[in-house]
User: Fold this.
Amino acid sequence: MATHDSRELGVETQAHFRRNMIINTVVDTGFGFGMSLFAVGTIIAAFLRHLGATNTVIGLAPAITMAAMALPQLPVTHWTRGLREKKKLFVAIHISAYAPWLVIAALTVLWASPHPQRMIVALLALMGLAYLMWGGGPPLWAQLLPRLFPDRARGMAVGVIVTAQGLAGVAGGLLAAWVLAHVAYPDNFALLFLIAGAVMIVFRSLHLLSHESLPDEPPEVTREGMWRIVARLWRSDRRLRRFVLARHIYEGGALVGNFFAVYALTRFHLPDQAAGKFTLASCIGLAIVGPWLGRLGDRRGYRRVMGYAIVIWCATTAMIALAPSLPIVYAAFVIGGVAAAADGVAYVNLLVEMSEEKTRGYYVALGSTVMAPLRLAAPFMWGRMSDQLAVGLHNPVLGLHSIFVWGIILQALGWLALVATMDDPRRPRQRILHWHRGMGLPRLY
Assistant:
């Protein structure tokens, strides 16, 4: 496969880089716009709340979607390991994943008012189906990313893409707030789902115009079974194991974020359109820091960026829990968007740098699939805990407030596990626990 440094490969590769940058920016503009119209933590949470769902059921939405997205990643990686061109399958998977939102839109019109319980079941089932199909995308994206962008500009490219998503999400948040305020229920939610599905299908199709630098020969495919490959990689890479451990601890606490919107809507007695404004605030944070974070990762390593993401999300949780007024809540959502941008830039790039071409998909799949049990259980358990505490304390706001405190503790422990045990692939031994006498204080970042 060709080298990825555009300055070494000359004008043709630079032209491909510019072409891919433009196309992917346009594609992810549509993606960011569509995602903001059915954001699970805000729009879907508000919709389920309107349908009469408890916090336990509201917690099922992110649990089902994240677990469904994680489960197929290893099988898809293994089944497509001999596929020389990844782009077409990548596009087909995403279009299939967006189509269920058109069905959800139709069912919302038919069932939301007369049959709210039936609508809850249908919504969760179709969301699970959409994200199950979507789960084949991340490992393919990890293999496409080095083929689309040179190594020295990969983080910057992802940062620009994240910014495009955030800017489009701002427009989507404005639209969502307007639709929720001016269109009658349930047609308002149905319209958002319909627009989201249609826009994302159209824009994702444009990805076929990008240039994928293909290897000279088809990838070598061994007869080794999937689980044997996974077991070998897991045993041989201590950094991967430590990354997954730190990620488990951090995400266990970070998943309380699925209840931020529910908490704010309940505490400040807000109408549904506030969910659109929360999405808007998050997308502002997502948009303003993408290129800077990408450049930071390119120059200083992505573990540093991931560490920042954890610290910022911990601060977001604290701001939500302690917010004395609504403006502080909106500020917290903006800061949460910054954390999401940092995590989005760092997560895949870190796994890409930890792996080689032939194992890249397995690394990304392992970094997600092994998280499936936690992602399924944690939001449900946080929702269940908040419901039980609300009954005991006779206050639903205090029930949610309590789980935020526990979430902050776990996030802090996850950050400590990351910086104490895992080094950056570019800077081996740069961690707290690799500290011998006479070395002085280690550089954590």
